[in-house]
Amino acid sequence: MYFDFFGLSHPPFKITPDTDVFFEGGNRGAILEALIYAITHGEGIIKVTGEVGSGKTMLCRVLQTRLPPNVETVYLANPSVSPDEILHAIAFEMQLHVPRDASRLEVMHALNDYLVDRHSEQRQVVVFVEESQGMPISTLEEIRLLSNLETQHNKLLQIVLFGQPELDENLSQKNIRQLRERITHSFKLLPLDVQDARAYLTFRLRAAGYRGPDLFSSRVIAYMNRACGGLTRRLNLVADKALLGAFAEGTHDVTLDHVKAAVRDSEFSNTALPRKRSPFTFAISGLAIGGMLGIAAYAGYQAINVPKGQIAGTQDAATIQYSAPNDPVRIVDNSPKPSENIAPVAASQVLAAPVPETSTSPTNTPVDVLEQRLLATGQWLDQQNGDYYSIQLLGADNPELLREYFKTIAKYVEIEKVYVYRTTANRHPSLTVLYGTFPTRREVSRTLEGLPDELKYNRPYYRTIQGVRTEIARQRS
Fold this sequence. Notes:
By secondary structure, the protein is of the alpha/beta class. 40% of the residues lie in helices and 14% in strands. It has helices at residues 28-40, 56-66, 83-93, 104-120, 137-146, 166-171, 177-182, 194-207, 218-228, 232-249, 256-264, 289-299, 368-383, 399-412, 441-450, 453-456, 465-476; strands at residues 45-50, 71-76, 124-129, 158-163, 183-189, 320-321, 330-331, 389-396, 418-425, 428-438, 461-464.
């Protein structure tokens, strides 16, 4: 809502990884080049660690876009599975026709044959494993055995493990030392120092179209970086809220008070700052409802009512949405934006019991839209070729938010090509949303790249139809 006020063309501090705004400072660029070198020269297992919010996912996404065309990538977002399941997950992502009840030896043979064929075509295959600190030790050992697939001179499979510092603790165990000795390169994403934090904030603002003087003073940046621990995701959250606070005051001068209020409002805050009432507090305690409505009018936004209970500090319906404790207050217009409560669901997560339905107001999308898409999805899956692809747009644990999001989806794609099935996320009932049917990887990749920004908000990615069927079947078994 503050974009026009600061002369910005788009959000400068989104926490969703955007490969177009990869920051190469803080040694990120050097690590990226080293990863490209290690992968293209066939170097065993590679490890990248960093704290939560240090930029591992961004680095992984950028790495996939910078590798040569002859490098084929397999992406595993949630590796918290058993050794047998990890082999099947990789085989499915490679589109191998492996029966669901195939033994471990059969899957290994299928993988080996596939990799030998790719090697004969002078192609490389690399598996990116995110959140690998959550991988069971036995599954890590299975990863090591995969690295044994090789010719007389070359490794057939490259493996890159991305994880939090706990990954190093797991690898330090005696019973996994064989894997530890196979790691040929190890990289660590360190927090940004003050100079890099300044360069990062400036880079993100300039990339969003800002052309004015520095918005953050040296004193403000020093405080912000200390409070955020030098982590880019936290810097994004605090900078976004600080700009909102300055906008609420009608000033282009982002002060230390704005930043302190933003830090206090953040879930990660571990500073000793007292939680006092402030004119910049984002939970409506300092900014009166009437004042925010005035801001909405000033910014030219058309407000709509939101349901009771979505407003911080009030039980009445209002025009200000506060969708999560660590989100900024938002003025809502008639074009719902994807909520940060809607998070992508990994391909390895499974089907769950039906999600409890709640009532919806007459102003929302009709209740039966969700049910219609759920019914249509079953018929669609029965008819499709398992080798075809679809795009996973997002996952949602709140049916009402999903019904709202259908309004956004319908502006850009045919709702009849949107499919929904029940699953679980972090052991809780959830709903996964897919879009379209695509016969080839090239076609689905082209469609994925061409999605509007509103549909890229939740980091969509493509999946095989067979992979979706397998996920559902595992839950039913």
